[in-house]
Amino acid sequence: MMFDLSFLNMCSSRVLEFDLDIIQCVDESKLKWTSFHLTDKWSALCKESLRLSRISEFLLLNPLYIIRIMHMLHVEALQILLQGLCGVPKDRVRVHEFCLKSGPNLGVVPSEVRLLCDLAQPTPTWTVRHAGGAMRGAGAEQLSVLVRSVVESKVSNNALRFFYAVGYKLDHELLKIGFAFRFQRVVPITVTVTSANRMPRLHAIDDAVPLTPGIQLVEITAPAAGDNYNEVAAAVSSFCEYLVPLLHLSKPGVSTGIVPTAAAAASSLLSNSGGKAI
Amino acid sequence: MEADGGAAPSQGQLAPPAVEAVAPPKVERLNPVVQQQLNLESVKTRALGLYKTISHILEDFEAFARSNTTPKWHATALIIVPYASALAFFKYLLEAIFTGSLLGSQRKKKKSFDVISELLHCRQDALGQFSMVSMDLFNIVEDIKNVSKAFVVYPRNVNAENATILPVMLSSKLLPEMEAEDTTKREQLLLGISGLPVHMQIEKLKTRIDMIGAACEAAEKVISDCRKAYGLGSRQGPTLVPTLDKVQAAKIQEQENLLRAAVNFGEGFRIPIDQRQLPTSLPSHLADVLSFGDGAQNLGDNAGAYGKNTSSFSSNQGVLQTAGGQLIGRSVPSPSNAVSFDNASTPPMAYANSPRSGTNIMNTPSPQQQVQQQQQQRQKILQLPHQQQLLVQQQLRQSSAAGVLGQGVMSQLHDLTGQTQQKLQQITNMSASMQSQSLLPRIQFGLTGGHTQRNHPSQMLNDQMFGMGPSNPANMIAMQQQQQGGFGNISTHTQNLQSGMVNLPNTTQNPNFPQQRQQNQS
Lengths: 278, 522
Known about the structure:
The structure holds 2 protein chains of 2 kinds.
Chain A: H1 15-25, E1 26-27, E2 32-33, H2 40-49, E3 58-61, E4 64-71, H3 75-86, E5 91-102, E6 112-118, E7 125-134, H4 138-142, E8 146-155, H5 159-166, E9 168-185, E10 187-198, E11 209-210, E12 215-221, H6 229-241, H7 262-273
Antiparallel strand pairs in A: 1-2, 3-8, 4-8, 4-12, 5-6, 5-9, 6-7, 7-8, 9-10, 10-11, 10-12
Chain B: H1 11-14, H2 32-37, H3 40-67, H4 74-99, H5 106-120, H6 124-149, H7 160-163, H8 166-171, H9 176-189, H10 198-229, H11 246-265, H12 284-287, H13 311-314, H14 318-328, H15 338-342, H16 355-363, H17 365-373, H18 376-398, H19 402-415, H20 417-431, H21 441-447, H22 455-462, H23 472-485, H24 490-503, H25 512-521
């Protein structure tokens, strides 16, 4: 069958095009793909094979990432600190993440799409996410955060089959277990502390083991638009200042070391709480 | 550095010592580049916060000292006195940071820092709380040291009066303003004794210094006694920050890099090809999503994606699924093995009614089409399910239960005949490009009803675009076997056809096909 899958070739430079295509493509009530890139055959295929039911959210995000690796011992302390700073209860995070890479039939440049299955909910919910390239340039170097274009949407549970049908292949999968805090501080900020677990066999969730047993991943993200990312970056950076005693946060590509005060700060946080259950 | 307007003209003369990449400032704010380099904003934020915290601490202690006169807390009172001056200096320090002007000497900072640390360790319950504060202070002091390296003495105002002596003053590292403040402080200190001869002044100052020293020592003694009395460990001052030895630090760094690579690029999560077999028991959230035979072929290094049939089969086709799952769970076959089924004996026409045969027939023509039309996209897409079909085919051939399963399939498929007709219409367009020959159009498509995707091969048959050459019987066998194992979607069936066609001895139309498949599997 002939169809042009160029809209699925999610090169970073074409994220905007992709967004428009998707917005045109998806008619939420009718699940009809009507992008001008697609032929009718593809349209029929999608309609029949992919039940993209209830694309309830479709967000164009520019999340600003700061990622920090921190030692396991201080996770408790960080949780206490975040609890105090954010004022909201923590959310459990248990996400089965599929990283799908496009095959050669979808263009010369391979693109990556991630399917996230949230297992913390009573009913697993699926999300598809595509992260574009990071913002580059002198302005980006100045920022202490990483700005990327991200497209996210909730999808039905046959999204995995759909992407397989289209030509995506499973590159790797991982399980992220941890907690997250979502709160508002100028902008909605999400702080996620997770341990990345690998599965020794395909889809063997119960056998997942942490990839780096002593170290967890701290991610701080916030959505931004094209015109206000500077303010959002400033908000995120200023929030990170509160975490300085425990950990230093840096852009995803930059490595940071152990904070010398981390042990003392963690002990003080833990002793303050005095065993309070959170 | 902050500069008033009048200071600008003197920039050229003064030529401040080399500062990293800072142009002579002619603006009233710090060069933003410098600000960011030195992370001044963060230092300022932290210093502000710390300042407030210490002020609160100081207030608490003052209140406590007033209310509590037990001997062991006398030291607190004594400490407060020098601390007051230390705090005054600390205020000056912070002001200097805020305004970006020169920072004072290091000695005073250290002393104030030590005193503050003493203060912070006075009370047992305060110790835990304020250890963080002391850490913050330590960090800030360190940062300020770094920051101060970027700053130089800079006269706030240069006018005719001091222009000539400024170079000298700069060399002696005395600001005229600072000098004035110094003089004022000196007058305060020497209040009452300034009239005496110098040596007496010196002696009086010495006694004062000794008194303060004695007070500090007494305070330290009290602190250590309290620590022992309350069972606290040795002081965790900034000088006692536990440092990781290099081995540990290297290990942690390595783990950190590993985690970064894993999260950003997926290193460390990939499973080798030979282990990429779908487990017989899927997690609950995947059980409905993936069919039993899908996993192995959808992995990037292998065949890649092909469609999967799922929940629609669950109730009616449990038997088939189980059997298929067992079969598919075996090792991934090499592409060359797919040839073997083509040479199998021609099945009796009884198999023509099985859904598998229908599927296989539809798949067969597709390689011909590809060769004819040379549509690479399709080829690659079809290859993906194709490999899985090969896998299924081989396993099914090896299984002696094929016949049994076939009958089961037939019974189930008959139930789906009604739905088939509708779906055939829909898929007609899609299969239009698949000009394959149909040998048993009517029979087969009637049996492959049910799932939308399975109707695709039926559609192809209906279109009568498919033709089964002399090799068709062989393909039918393969197709039957394939169908048994995997009720895939359209592309799945297509794959079957492709594989069948490629491996047929009388088919030489698709020389590239095995290569493509091998690529997918490699």
